[in-house]
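Predict the 3D structure for this chain.
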Amino acid sequence: MVQEYQSPVRVYKHPFELIMAAYVRRFPKCPLIPVFVDSEIVSENQSKDGSTLVTERRCVIDIDAPRLLKRIAGVDYLYFIQKNTLNRRDRTLRIEVHNETFSSRVVVRECCNYTVHPENEDWTCFEQTASMDIKSFFGFESTAEKIAMKQYASSIKKGKEIIEYYLRELEAEGVTFIPRWTPPVVSGTTRAIPVKGARNGLDSKDTELVVGSPDDKLDADYIRRYLGDLTPLQESCLIRLRQWLQENNKGKIPKDQHVLRFLRARDFNLDKAREFMWQSLTWRKQHQVDFLLDTWERPQLLQDYYAGGWHHHDKDGRPLYVLRLGQMDTKGLVRALGEEKLLRQVLSLNEEGLRRCEENTRVFGRPISCWTCLVDLEGLNMRHLWRPGVKALLRIIEVVEANYPETLGRLLILRAPRVFPVLWTLVSPLIDENTRKKFLVYAGNDYQGPGGLVDYIDKEILPDFLGGDCMCDIPEGGMVPKSLYRTAEELESEENRLLTDSIYKSASIFKGAPYEMLVEITEASSVITWDFDVSKGDVIFNIYHSKRAPQPPKKDTLGAHAITSLGAVNTQLIDRNWVLGKDYSMVEKALTCREGESVQGSHVTRWPGFYILQWRFHSTPACSASSLPRVDDVLASLQVSSHKCKIMYYTEVLASHDFRGSMTSLESSHSGFSQLSAATTSSSQSHASSTISR
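Done. Predicted structure below.
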């Protein structure tokens, strides 16, 4: 495998000529580089006018490798050929290096350039690229590669120190200025020949270095100031990924801080980070995320009921986001807004977080690339473990993890109730391991003591609802009125969905034409869970089991009755010839559900086979469980709206081991936030596994 290296632009705030005088002092050998044993000049050629000097050296390197490896290789030293091309007219030095030892087994190439800074001609820039391809090395290819990379990284780090050392040495000798090269004056000529790169009256003290522009090469000082301390190889990964983006991405190039996040998320594996980032860029382009902050208008519902907002910063200068999750009506928000708008809300918060990190980097004068999130769980209870809501949360987490890596610096979870471990069991598998390590959980009032919030947030900006003196201007949440809930059709018709499908589905139930759903179970003890709302009419809910697969009737079953379009009539799974108790059996008691009620529940299966969830029209007397639609009933149902019911439903099947890990989350609970009134009505026929709320 070919290993490559690309350095950032390193800037010396000294003229090119003085840097060259310091550079030549490292030859023939340099005590500051112990592995650089010696060098000799093989050839040296200079142009007639003296503007160009080409020097070729043979350098001797003592690699810090195990003695055994050296004996196997049969060498004590490695030999490299270095070719230096100094152009005094253009004020450039190009250094080309290749290995002489083991050249048939290992190919090493290095290229370095010293040039004049484009914005300040009294400063000098340095860039370096290198590659190494170990084809074979006595069976120790991996070991040799690690040793070489370690040695090379060490020498890179010392490079600038060595130049600065010899600059100080020159200064001690009284050499602080070296005139620029000028072409020889032709006899009889008095006119001065212009010199390329003349100062034109500029003073280096009056010129500021401009770095960090997306179109410029990265400067080492800029990296330290805005991105933090990186190893030479990490700098190389950043620069190479950035170059690849400039060459291949036709859209907006992400800022350097964001590129670095993707590298960190993949431990600076360039190939993995490149693939990871490309997927995210494709997603951003597809959904126009780059314009989200300019185009997203928060619905009034979010402004009133979404209990979260930005609140100053923590002690490290990171932006602080406060979320009062325990006060939020998660089901109400999902039902009233849909997953699409909730996801856009979360994405806008992440985009805002990226912007705030940039601002705080400028304000505090140090790199800030992530934020702190404070989550208050006071008020969290079983209603927050409403299964579709948890699933929507998991899907949102997936999108955020895939597109905003390494943005969470710390997550402070306060006043965690006893039910929190259940929620954590459901959510944690989708959260990256490095992110999970940043979670700090405080139960009860533990956050008030030593090791609590004051260790991370200054006391004067602690939110008032946590006992601090600082007003926290975020909504208090509360129940979303059920009158604001949207229908399944409205939720499913969202355009430009960031999620591929909707949690909820809708169904119509006609008098004599129940709606049936087939669930195939291959493992006994699997768990069927359900959550549905009756939006129109009254229904009876049943669950049946059969060992054989139901065969839906053919489309022309009713052809003899001259009915050409029965799009509104549901497909029946229970055959008219089946006998209850013989061909199929009822596994849950029938549950009567009234208009406006919400029903949640679960069933632990006893046998594999086919389970049928059935919703049928409720009338007096109730229809027979196994009855098929009569033509007269169907025709009547198409004409009379009072013979039609509507539901919005969600179902899921869990494996038995998953169910045991989250048993509490599937227990039915009173959904107080979904009530139209404070009363809760449970049918006398209701099985213990289901709960109804109005």
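The chain has four domains: 2-173, 220-287, 290-482, 505-680.
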